[in-house]
Design goal:
The chain has about 160 residues and is mainly α. It is built from six helices and two strands. A two-stranded antiparallel ribbon has the order 1-2. β1 and β2 form a beta hairpin. It comes from Planococcus liqunii. It holds the Pfam family DinB_2. This is DinB family protein.
Length: about 160
């Protein structure tokens, strides 16, 4: 694996593991909790997080809007912690394996997403990391400030 990608993947390993540990502090009933009428429920947030890794990887490969719409329909987990965790693990493994197979020329290849963003595949990986971290922060904030729980989960090394 490219050494720069290896570092990102190591950080993503920690991020995915910490989300699973945060999920372990929840019950399936908590998934219905909607902290704000304008925002996703905890379950909707986690379901979104569970598909991010593969979705962002596919977008970086140049998937069309139609292909992504189909992916989201097929990839949506059942609204249970077990299903969401399984989906997250599988989609993260897809990203991890896909990045591991790429050579430097592949990582430097620039693609344009169906919504007009232009990045190299390496930049898509960075974007995926930022996207996942953003939602992990939201999840942690909901646990602490809405559910009034201190999860005691390490978020950074």
């Amino acid at each position: 694996m490219n050494p720069y990608c290896k570092g990102i993947i190591q950080q993503m390993d920690l991020a995915v593991d910490s989300v699973i540990k945060l999920m372990d502090t929840l019950s399936d009933e908590d998934l219905l909790n909607k902290p704000n009428a304008e925002k996703w429920s905890i379950g909707e947030l986690l379901a979104h997080m569970s598909v991010i890794c593969k979705a962002d990887f596919l977008i970086g490969l140049g998937a069309s809007e139609e292909e992504m719409d189909q992916y989201y329909v097929e990839a949506a987990p059942q609204m249970s912690l077990a299903s969401i965790a399984s989906t997250l693990r599988g989609n993260y493994a897809y990203l991890r394996n896909g990045i591991a197979e790429m050579e430097e020329k592949d990582l430097l290849q620039v693609t344009t997403s169906f919504f007009g963003a232009v990045h190299s595949r390496y930049e898509w990986l960075l974007d995926t990391q930022a996207h996942f971290y953003h939602h992990r922060g939201q999840l942690h904030a909901i646990l602490v400030h809405v559910l009034k729980r201190e999860p005691n989960v390490q978020l950074f090394e």
